[in-house]
Amino acid sequence: MSHRFRTLISVSDKTGIVDFAQALIHIGADIISTGGTASHLRSANIAVQEVSEVTGFPEILDGRVKTLHPAIHGGLLGRLEVDNDTMEEHSIDPIDMLVVNLYPFESTVAQSECTFADAIENIDIGGPAMIRAAAKNHERVAAVVDPQDYEAVISELKRGDGRLTPATRLNLAKKAFAHTACYDAAIWAYLRSSDDDKTLPKEYPVGLRQHSDLRYGENPHQQAGVYTALTGGTGAVIGARQLQGKPLSFNNIADADAAMECALTLDPTACVIVKHANPCGVAIAATALEAYGKAYATDPKSAFGGIIALNSAVDGPTAASMIDQRFIEAIIAPSFDESAVEALRKKPKIRVLESGNLPRTPSWDLELRQITGGMLLQDRDLASVSRSELTVVSERAPTDQEVIDALLAWNVAKFVKSNAIVYCKDGATLGIGAGQTSRVMSAQIAALKAAEGGLELRGAAMASDAFFPFRDGIDTGATHGVGVIIQPGGSVNDEEVIAAANEHGIAMLFTGMRHFRH
Q1: Which residues are catalytic?
Q2: pTM across the whole model
């Protein structure tokens, strides 16, 4: 090849780097490198010039300073047409390609034994500075940060007589800036969590890394992918092992996440069935089989094509009961025993996700929601109410069983789109009304769902995610014989609402908090 070019290589992830460097030399590259990478390349008999030979300055401060030098950054940033005289005056040779990936900060801090000092030492300074310099000057310099790009880069260099096209250098620059942005976001997230900072930040770097492509989004005409957040864990669905079934769709992932989020807040053994982002059946019981049966009985029609989540292991009898259902999109649970796996193989199209054990109480984090031109940020809704925090506002106090049912209904309402009404009894939902613009309409729909399933509401608990503005919701519940109503309270018409409960002999509990879910 007629064109020789200088390449600086300094990588933490050495996957494929020897083959890449050898291919570069065959094309016409001179290799510059730093300590560990230089030793790795030399062990493969690849000729390397140390960075310290280029700078005339040794690595100092235990390696904290090695590439932060005008000979390096001038070589990366220099514009040959504009800066040639200055570069010659200071003996700065151009660098045409930078191959860098950064200290493994994320994997380091993920280790349980990692100390704060360890984390700080794994913050790369020289690497991001070089990447940004090379990417800024992409009209001349190629910034390669991903080992998966090595093969394509070599192929194009061979076709282009040792040169990359402007379009390729631009694409590499975009990838490079995304790489450093995500790296900084991961560091910010770690530092923020290190002192349990729960303030709303003035600036919030969002680091997302593609996990996988999806066939399409909510609808076939929409592109979609799954991305992992650098500011949090991998999550139940993203981190789950898929045992069988087709790849998950956009809607499968959203519904599975909502189902498992709800299941993890319930005790002891819980089953949650979600359809179109709303629970359509929830139950707690001593066994997974019983919990599933009670949850499914709430609304078999809506459960068709739903997502099932359990917070405990799935055994053979439970799996066998599930596959008797007409159609299931996916099942997610911490584990499946051998008999469950065998039973589910009879329906190979069912997506089966093994999440592993997940914490029942999710860690605190901010929740982001995209809007046109920006984001809404808020604390995740992790608040709950204990029995001792409930206020009895009615003349009749609830029985112990009514309180238990009321708390289950209240916990489920938290995961139902507002306006939400949930009827519960004996550890299971009986009817769920979701997403209506009228709260009384949600109450009526929930009652219709119960009636459709042949479920008796007499003596049931009725939960509302926000206060009742008028007594009509109470009257609807009374028509169906509910025994206790749990709601936040706080309406200007609370006296009228409480009077309606007393009139019907219904016990009423105030929680003092609401759970809107939009």
Answers
A1: 136, 276
A2: 0.86
